[in-house]
Amino acid sequence: MKLSHQLMLIAAIGMLGTSALGQERGGSALGKPAPELQVAEWVKGDPVVLKEGVGKHIYVVEFWATTCIHSRGCIPHLTAMQKRYEDKGVVFISITAEPVETVKASVEKMGEEIEYRVAVDKSMATFTAYLRSVGIRTTPTAFVIDKSGNLVWHGHPMSGLDKTIDAVIAGTYDIETCHRRDMARVRLPGYFTTASSPSYAERAENIGEKIIEDGQSDIMLMNEFAWKIATRPGLIKRDLALAMRAAQIAYDGCEGKNAGILDTYARVLWESGKKKEAIEYQRKAVGLTDIEEFRQELEKTLAKYEKAAGED
Question: 295 in a domain, yes or no?
Fold first, then answer.
């Protein structure tokens, strides 16, 4: 085994220690003042200056892209939440780094589907200030800013955002939950590095347990974990029982109403040999999305399952 790979494994296993949590927090943006928004143009809604809302508003700042099917899938949810929380001083803002004309055309086409503020980032300044501060590069990602002007949560818009807002409004929000979830995500690469090593694969179980323990509040993290266990090539130990636990947490968290999560749930069932159940849940996944590209992907997977099951 190469020394570099050995060091990666040692680091991965070491992440089980509680000291790693404190080290990671040192660079975390959580609990600190939110960076001001750098906007090239406000496409929908009135401009927002965060510092002017201190003491008055809770802000939800979401990063998205018009071309991302997962971002588009969040729009109805965000619109519904803006209407639900508007009278409680919560302001929703979506920011994209795409060309202004592209965003204008997309927002105009969506019409009343998107009923919250939309802005175009200025030279990626806001994306950089927010996403890099928590080590995230993907969209959609949302941030919650409390009335003190501090960042208190980040995550997928469909994964606990409403519960977080409720807790922030009630004054019961515990930022520690988000810190633990962040550490679960940090451990994710270490789990798969360890599970891919003939010498260390058995130690992956302990890392996996910590990921579920600390990350179960994030259903999208659980969904990602389950999917990767079920599909990632090269695993010495493919722990499908662990994948099923993570998939079940994600499924229960979305109440069986998220097509992507059902797709993962079905895949774990399929890999576990439960083909009839996998086909049942994949059919449900197909029926849950109105996004044509995504539905086509789900239908292709369903067809593969049905064909393979019919050949047995």
Answer: yes
- Whether the pLDDT of residue 15 is over 70: the answer is no
Edge-to-edge strand list for the sheet holding 151-155: 39-44, 117-121, 90-96, 58-63, 141-145, 151-155
| Stretch (H or E) spanning 206 | helix 204-215
CB 248 within 8 A of CB 266: no
User: Is 8 inside any structural domain?
Assistant: no
pLDDT, one tens digit per residue, over 119-163 is 999 999 999 999 987 878 789 999 999 999 999 999 999 988 999
Q: Could you give the CA distance from residue 77 to residue 126 in angstroms, rounded to a whole number?
A: 23
Q: Whole domain around residue 134: which residue ranges?
A: 39-149
Query: Is residue 169 within 8 Å of residue 91, measured between CB atoms?
Result: no
Considering its fold, how many domains does the chain have in total? Answer: 2
Measured CA distances, 94 to 62, 84, 136, 253 (Å): 5, 17, 16, 24
Is-contact 246 222, C-beta < 8 A?
A: yes
Q: How far apart are CA 66 and CA 75, in angstroms?
A: 10
pLDDT tens for residues 77-136?
999 999 999 999 999 999 999 999 999 999 999 999 999 999 999 999 999 999 987 878
Do 128 and 205 share a structural domain? no
What are the two backbone dihedrals, phi and then psi, of residue 119, each rounded to the nearest 5 degrees?
A: -135, 155
- Residue 225 to residue 227: CA distance in whole angstroms: 6
Q: Which residues pair with 120 in a beta bridge?
A: 41, 96
Reported pTM? 0.82
Tens digits of per-residue pLDDT, 250-286? 999 999 999 999 999 999 999 999 999 999 999 999 9
